[in-house]
Design brief:
Elements (H helix, E strand, L loop, with lengths): L20 E7 L4 H13 L5 E4 L16 H8 L5 H20 L2 E6 L2 E3 L1 H10 L9 E3 L10 E7 L2 E6 L8 E4 L1 H9 L8 H6 L1 H4 L4 E4 L3 E3 L18 H37 L1
Parallel strand pairs: 1-2, 1-3
Antiparallel strand pairs: 3-8, 4-10, 5-8, 6-7, 7-9
């Protein structure tokens, strides 16, 4: 599928071919307790899956991390990415590569989630009626503040919503090869955590969509293995200026993208009412 523009991503086309769907659970080799728990949940729901072995940024080095640009990171955020953040990015990047290589639709789940098994099964059964233009869906609730959501389409018992602000999580998402190609093509340089990068739809071209009702949540029993670098000293005025400038620029770009997309959606709604 060619790179979508504002004008064509909403066009109705064929429905999704989900006969070759793969469900992967992202985990680290040493996370045996997490693997046992998520396997029990999915086996109980009779949902077939495969473990996808992630990158432990504290111990492993992945070739994708050659794209990490620490200078750009420092200029944008004032501190380097943590080893856990780098490993998490590399892990999802490898999933995108696998999705493209196999040319299969993926459902990606992290190993520290809770599932509504009935809704998950219903979602999988409903995918056959998912419009082909839908490239990526978050399967959890968007809890970020100050965002709007717009109804896009309905399939089965689910609604597709467009978010004006990303949910800042990668705990579970539906992924097509078309979306994976876009995530890959704009990933270089790496300088933001993978969830923030995926939320930059004005950069990667993958419109931020979610499902209602959601069916994946984080299991609070498990602490994040990503980790964050502790700030050892007060940031200089110049560092703070660059960080605030980057944040302001990101908000402006997001606003412009959303405004253009909303304008197009209104135009399509008027056409459908004529």
């Amino acid at each position: 599928m060619a790179h979508m523009t504002y004008e064509n991503w909403l066009e109705y086309g064929l429905f999704m071919n989900t006969s070759d769907l793969k469900i992967v659970v992202l985990t680290l080799h040493k996370s045996k307790d997490r693997q046992a728990r998520i396997k029990c949940l999915l086996d109980d729901a009779t949902i077939p899956f495969e473990f996808f072995w992630g990158v432990d940024g504290r111990e492993d080095f992945d070739p994708s991390l050659k794209m990490y640009d620490e200078q750009k990171r420092l200029k944008a955020k004032g501190q380097a990415m943590s080893p856990g953040q780098l490993g998490c990015f590399a892990s999802h990047y490898n999933i995108w590569m696998s999705c493209v290589r196999e040319n299969r639709n993926y459902v990606v789940i992290e190993d520290d989630v809770l599932l509504d098994k009935q809704r998950f099964s219903a979602f999988l059964q409903s995918l056959k009626s998912l419009p082909e233009r839908i490239e990526c869906l978050r399967l959890f609730e968007n809890k970020t503040r100050n965002h709007k959501r717009y109804f896009i389409a309905k399939f089965g018992d689910f609604e597709i919503l467009r978010y004006t602000k990303g949910p800042m999580s990668t705990m579970g998402y539906f992924l097509t090869p078309a979306a994976a190609k876009k995530f890959i093509s704009s990933a270089d340089p790496i300088f933001l955590p993978v969830d923030i990068y995926m939320d930059r739809y004005w950069v990667n071209g993958v419109v931020c969509l979610g499902v209602e009702p959601p069916f994946i949540t984080h299991d609070s029993k498990f602490e994040s293995i990503i980790g964050y670098k502790a700030r050892s000293e007060r940031r200089s005025l110049l560092i703070r200026f660059h960080r605030e400038l980057f944040t302001l620029t990101e908000r402006l770009r997001r606003y412009i993208f959303n405004a253009r997309l909303s304008q197009f959606e209104k135009g399509k709604a008027l056409e459908s009412n004529d």
